[in-house]
Amino acid sequence: MTSKSAASAVLKPDICVIGGGSGGLTVAAAAASFGVSVVLIEKGKMGGDCLNYGCVPSKALIAAAKHAEAIREAPHFGVFAGEPEIDFARVNAHIHEVIGAIAPNDSVERFRALGVNVIQAEARFTDARTVVAGDQTIRARRFVLATGSKPRVPDISGLADVDYLTNETLFSLTTRPEHLIVIGGGPIGVEMAQAHRRLGCAVTILEMGTLLSKEDPELARIVTRRLEADGIAVLENIEILRASKGGDGSVSIAYRIDGEETSVTASHLLVAVGRAAQVDNLGLKEAGITFDQRGIKVGSGLKTSNSRVFAIGDAVAGGLQFTHVANYHAGLVLQQILFRVPAKENRSVIPRVTFTDPELAQIGLTEEEARKAGHTITIQRWPYAQNDRAEAERRTGGEIKIVAGKRGVILGVGIVGHGAGEMINLYALALSKKMTLNDLRGFIAPYPTMSEIGKRAAISYYAPMTRKPFVRKLLAFLRRFG
Ligand SMILES: Cc1cc2nc3c(=O)[nH]c(=O)nc-3n(C[C@H](O)[C@H](O)[C@H](O)COP(=O)(O)OP(=O)(O)OC[C@H]3O[C@@H](n4cnc5c(N)ncnc54)[C@H](O)[C@@H]3O)c2cc1C
Prior knowledge:
- The protein is built from 15 helices and 26 strands.
- The protein is α/β, with parallel strands linked by helices.
- The structure holds flavin-adenine dinucleotide.
């Protein structure tokens, strides 16, 4: 139990977690289940970004958009229902029903029932081992900073005078935007652009580089083509000059493209240019914790420059900003705090998915990254177009691209296509177990499933070998006597 001195009212738990989002909640729940005393401090909504303003509402919105699109595609299957009618208020209610269904898992009540001392206040270090939150002072054996991130706001002239949306306000809209401009063509920007387009909004994406620029360009282009086919105006390699407000509440963005200045006017503007780690007002300097605007600096075991303090999730400088990464970090930190077993982050086994249609999933190295790292590689591909299930479902756009090193060791896998986000799980296992293409061809995949494309890609690696004379002789021998 947390010990509390009546005189000083100082809480002295084993672990103090700051931030009740994906990472912080995982640490608190697991530590409490081992009977360790935990104080958890959350200044806003329990569940953090993922539950309230991120993964959950965005995937609920995408689910609504999928239903609309399925109705539009239905005539290809001989099913007719006309153009879908979208009730945006109902879409919004659906989003909040989904959040409401998940919220009890992350609630103050559940965590208190687990034995966690939950403090609902803003936390701040006052020195290297003391945090204050509201009228409480906490001196813990270990601290875990899980303060997450916030939307990055670009330096665009006039933007401050315009009513723009971010992920923190987008999911409150109960009326459909006539025309949504999305600044930023990263995963959040493109997911939200496509969902809104399919729910009947006109959508323009403004991107200074190319869409999904951190992904394999070949695979990203397949997504871009689909967004354009959906009717989204995709403007790449542009320079944004200024934002301004129209008298009717509209918003205009002036930009330069191919050396020419032009502008686009819309009813709504979404800013989605990336995330900034939440490092403000935390007293990090007082605690001797090194940080910059990219986030909190940590070693490979996620320890900060203050050996009493770990940092996890979106708050970490240069880290991958996903819920499963925050959860993974939580596990690494718990291993060190609870069991004193050293742990090291391994980024090569972390998958990522952009939940567009088609989905784009990646794990390990892309082709370009593998070449830059000096690997001798082969690329194995298989298109959805040569998969029977994809044909039956009319989901033939996309492919798997496997980057393999010497002796067929899998270095990275990218999949763009229907269900890629589910399929990548197999490759997450394959990379974490250092599997080879031989392992991928050696299991039985049920027919007809789209996952068969990975097996086919792996088999194609071995096909040229069967043309070598000694292998042909061996195969002939095995056929005769095997
Ligand atoms: C639109 C959108 C869609 C996304 N979709 C996905 C997805 O599909 N899949 C995926 O894996 N990831 C997705 N993400 C990313 C995911 O939401 C984050 O990576 C994840 O929430 C990070 O978890 P965290 O614990 O680091 O931070 P958070 O979940 O943000 O939690 C941090 C918490 O700390 C609290 N806090 C901050 N400072 C203090 C303080 N001083 N005192 C007390 N409390 C404090 C905050 O209020 C917050 O609740 C998405 C993000 C967005 C914005």
